[in-house]
Amino acid sequence: MILSMAELTWPEVAEAVATGATTLILPLGATEQHGPHLPLGTDTYRAEALAERLASIMPNALVAPTLPVGCSDEHQGFAGLLGLERETLAGVIVDCARRATKWGVQQLVVVSAHGGNADALELAAGRLERELPHLRVALLGAGTALSDAILAVAAADGIPAVAVGLHAGEGETSEMLALRPDLVRMHRATAGCRDGLKDIMPRLRRDGLRSVTSTGILGDATAACADRGHRYLAAEIQAYRDVLRQGPAASEGPSR
Questions:
Q1: Where are the beta strands (DSSP E) in the chain?
Q2: Please, are residues 115 and 74 in contact by the beta-carbon 8 Å criterion?
Q3: pLDDT score of 143
Q4: Is the whole-model pTM more than 0.85?
Q5: Strand, coil or helix: what is 91?
Q6: CA-wise closest residue to 87 among 126, 48, 137, 40
Q7: CA–CA separation, 143 vs 57, rounded Å?
Q8: pLDDT tens digits, residue range 161-213?
Q9: Which CATH number fits domain 3-248: 3.90.870.10, 3.40.50.10310, 3.40.50.2300, 3.40.1440.60?
């Protein structure tokens, strides 16, 4: 059974902690454009799903409510953006952790489904180490191992990396078809920028995503399918599991 804090009463949380549920999984999402076909809450839905799947294989884990706003300034120029400064998000993570330790949490696992949260995770990692040295911390994001896991699934289906994409492409669209097909407007899906990350990163960092794609898509959303989305999610959970076995880590990438 998944212990979702938002659905529990305080006595139920206290009882869960007393019987060993001392790990807190904190999902981080974002509210930002994901092309003309995916909802602004794509990363939030993905973060919640990944956290719940991770909790299903982790004994004694509580799942916190998903934080729906992250660091998304690269999406300025598209309607609907809500965002935080990296220092603000790092502070929210640390504040939540500090208060959770007061009622018994001994391990914090942060699951970020948005690559733009990387700098905030790095800041939070430093603060948590200094301010809460007895708290075990794992910060899980879109790092290399995760990207490799997703691309391996895609390659097995003959989907090239440029189609999987870095944002709102085949990868995220497939995952949303698996998670919330009712929110995917596939009739609006299209192929966006398919250039490599190294080619677009300087301009993306300087001028934002709008400078490299008018639709907000990096990849080819038309190639998406729900079955592959389920397999992507399973591969991500396995990658997270491998990282957790290796010990605390803070690894994020610039994508998704």
A1: 3-4, 23-28, 61-63, 107-112, 136-140, 250-251
A2: no
A3: 75
A4: yes
A5: helix
A6: 126
A7: 21
A8: 999 999 999 999 999 999 999 999 999 999 999 987 788 888 888 889 999 99
A9: 3.40.50.10310
